[in-house]
Design a protein that fits this description.
single chain; 750 residues; seven-stranded mixed beta sheet; Gly_radical
Length: 750
């Protein structure tokens, strides 16, 4: 067995997966065949080993076509296979060990169970993520994602890939073959050609599956599949079909600026009468459903709008189509995202508002007037390139087709503060977690600056750990796999004749997720105010109260809770939050530059990790008790924002976007307010974005609805809420996450 814990949850999974279509016996046979292919090619070049393994699962893992599908392509996933992200299996050659154990429990014979045990033992040494974890994880400072007993978590994944689908649909498979074949041969080039031939096999398989299906538009689907195998697409439906099958084979779960990719085809077909608006709507609705059925929880990004689009008219036509689909579907995925700028047509902005007001939770709104120059600075790029930024997952940025920037590192700023206050001991489990640092007792820190400097010293140590872990994740992934399908559609890989992590991708970056930011800044403000400014308490008195979870110190806790908090547009409090933000953001960014990455930036987002990590974080001096959820992303702790929506948005707009790689702002309004005060809310949002707001996510829900949904979940099977960087069905969330959502202020009036 491995010396680290590999057998546990490795991803936040909220959406309920659609069960595999294959029988238990067939699933086992596929996993055996995959493992045998890996063993056979164990000592071969990684690209050829990858291709051999892909040939086992493609097209075999593709599911049947369903009657309402208008494009072909549904895919199963097994506990062993190949992927890019933990949402759909794992990274590279993967084994999801706890799912393999669950699979074993379904087997009937001892012989089959013994085979699974052999698979389990083999992949302990060859699963890419496990290889990485063996190098990086330890018993004190660094845990795997998601082991929240640690102040720092590290993982290996490649979720932030937004491929050049525009190139795909404009060249088609024949054009891609021609581009690759003109390069001087090497293992990567040869395997890339093999990957495209494998895609041809997938298309042939989909043709047969459509023939066996009961779809209404069978003839069109078959003819278009036949056509795209040998020609570049000429219609909207053909381009949509080719894009989708490639995305499935590439393992990509975020789709990028599809208005640029598909808008010109849509506009052309509408103009010449090849397709009606209703037919286009039904095609896009089918794509929406296929993305939803992948159930990746925090992904599925479709992005439209904003700067850097050539055929703006066609792109806007596609945007309007997507907004119509979004309003009517109310799915958790795709994470439909609208980038906007000063030139965005008013009717598109109005359609977006109506979607949100009606409770769709989408589109998420991204302000290009702020984000484009901010990304240019943060990633050290020309603004023309920065115009192609795209958010993925929980809100991290990459440059479409040019950069990789997955967040493979996560920091709990609040837990690190507590460790710095207790001479390196985590008060939650009494373990020393300060590495080689010698930290002073806090009573020796006579000024707030001295106290803050000791905290920063420990932060610096964890910043160093994080950049080492981020860089090493790419080293290990590149050591084991080439990511053939993604590499083919990432700019420069083919011309450089190198896989994307092997020097092929133009910009290799990364992001670090930070948690507890606002709990920490509010705690720092409380310490500065009560200990160093007012001298009302000693630092030891405050710390002892927190160590005992405020038992017998309710009056002190009440005083801490009632101190000014971030989210109320209070200058001193917001300045403390900004000071901490800039220290962390600049520290991470500078280490990325020093390490030779194109960029390494913090991302202020969360899935439900703010809740999970809160369970393993001791009481804090903002008044939060031990085990309670931490603040979500860039937002106030639940219940702290008491001065109305204008105040909270003023606080949210304070952080300078040029230092981060994505930030999440959530806010809740009642439907009555969204409709009755629509003009006021639109004016509020305009002011927020003008002041520097980079992003906004909105939940619209009636007062009392969430509480009732907790008690009577059967009445609310489709109630969607924003968690942070993603939406979820409320009743599918754990009660602790539901409680955190309930704690957030719901605005009913100005």
């Amino acid at each position: 067995m491995s010396h680290i814990n590999i057998d546990g949850e490795q991803n936040v999974e909220v959406s309920r997966k659609i069960p595999c279509e294959k029988s238990i016996e067939e699933q086992l046979n596929i996993m055996i065949a995959y493992t045998n292919a890996y063993k056979t090619h164990l000592h071969n070049d990684k690209a050829h080993r990858e291709l051999a393994c892909l040939k086992v699962i493609y097209p075999r893992l593709f599911r049947s076509i369903e009657p309402d599908d208008r494009i072909a392509g549904r895919l199963d996933f097994l506990p062993i296979g190949f992927g890019s992200v933990t949402s759909l299996g794992g990274v590279g050659h993967y084994c999801v060990f706890h799912k393999l154990r669950a699979f074993k429990a379904q087997l009937q014979t001892e012989q089959d169970k013994a085979i699974v045990d052999q698979l389990y033992d083999f992949w302990q040494d060859h699963d890419v993520k496990t290889i990485y974890c063996q190098d990086i994880l330890n018993d004190t400072t660094t845990g795997r994602f998601i082991d929240c007993t640690y102040p720092f978590m590290a993982t290996a994944r490649l979720s932030g890939m937004m491929l050049n689908y525009e190139k795909l649909v404009n060249l088609g498979l024949p054009g891609l073959f021609a581009e690759i074949q003109k390069q001087e041969a090497n293992d990567f080039i040869d395997a890339s050609i093999g990957a495209l031939h494998l895609l041809e096999d997938v298309i042939d398989d989909q043709i047969e599956k459509v023939k066996q299906s009961k779809v209404k538009d069978q003839k069109r689907m078959i003819n278009d599949l036949i056509y795209i195998k040998d020609h570049k697409p000429k219609t909207f439906h053909q381009a949509l079909q080719l894009f989708w099958l490639y995305a499935l084979c590439a393992g990509c779960i975020n789709y990028g600026r599809l208005d640029i990719v598909l808008g010109p085809f849509l506009q052309q077909d509408l103009d010449n009468g090849t397709i009606t608006w209703q037919e286009a709507y039904e095609d896009m609705h089918s794509l929406w459903t296929l993305i939803e059925n992948r159930r990746t929880t925090v992904n599925g990004r479709i992005i439209v709008g904003g700067k850097g689009r050539k055929n703006v008219k066609a792109c806007d036509t596609f945007t309007r189509l997507c907004l119509e689909v979004c309003r009517n579907t109310r799915y958790v995925e795709p994470q439909f995202t609208l980038r906007f700028d000063k030139n965005t047509p008013q009717d598109i902005l109005d359609m977006a508002y109506d979607c949100i007001a009606d409770g769709a939770t989408y589109p998420t709104l991204y302000n290009d007037e702020i984000n484009v120059p901010a990304v240019a600075f943060a990633m050290r790029l020309d603004e023309t390139i920065a115009e192609q930024y795209v958010p993925f997952g929980c809100g991290e940025y990459v440059i479409q087709a040019k950069s990789v920037g997955t967040p493979n590192t996560l920091l709990n700023l609040l837990k690190i503060l507590q460790i710095s206050m207790n001479q390196g001991i985590d008060p939650m489990d009494h373990t020393y977690k300060a590495g080689p640092l010698a930290l002073k007792p806090i009573h020796e820190l006579k000024t707030f600056d001295a106290f803050y400097d000791q905290y920063k010293k420990l932060l610096d140590y964890y910043f160093d750990l994080s950049i080492e872990a981020q860089v090493h994740s790419y080293t290990i992934m590149n050591q084991e796999v080439s990511f053939l399908f993604p590499s083919i559609l990432m700019d420069d890989c083919i011309q450089r004749r190198k896989a994307l992590l092997d020097g092929g991708v133009e910009i290799l970056g990364g992001t670090n997720e930070t948690y507890g930011n606002i709990n920490t800044s509010d705690a720092l403000y409380a310490i500065k105010t009560l200990v160093y400014d007012q001298k009302k308490y000693t630092i030891d008195q405050l710390n002892e109260a927190a160590l005992h979870n405020f038992e017998g110190e309710e009056s002190l806790r009440k005083e801490l809770v009632n101190l000014p908090k971030y989210g109320n547009d209070i200058k001193d409090v917001d300045e403390m939050a900004n000071d901490l933000y800039e220290y962390v953001a600049k520290g991470i960014r500078n280490r990325g530059i020093q390490a030779g990455l194109g960029y390494y930036l913090i991302v202020i987002s969360n899935n439900q990790t703010n809740t999970d990590w809160g369970h393993q974080t001791a009481a804090s001096l903002d008044g939060r008790k031990a085990g309670v959820y931490m603040n979500p992303a860039n937002n106030p702790q639940g219940g702290a924002a008491k001065s109305g929506p204008t105040a909270v948005l003023n606080s949210l707009s304070l952080f300078d976007a040029k230092y981060h790689g994505g930030s999440v702002q959530n806010i809740k309004f009642t439907p009555k307010m969204m409709h009755k005060d629509a003009d006021k809310i639109k004016a509020l949002w305009r002011t927020y974005f003008k002041k520097g707001g980079c992003q906004l996510m909105v939940t619209v829900v009636d007062h009392g609805t969430l509480e009732d949904a907790q008690t009577h979940p059967e009445k609310y099977p489709d109630l969607i809420v924003r968690v942070a960087g993603y939406s979820a069905i409320f009743v599918n969330l754990g009660k602790d996450v539901q409680d955190e959502l309930l704690s957030r202020t719901l605005y009913e009036s100005f």
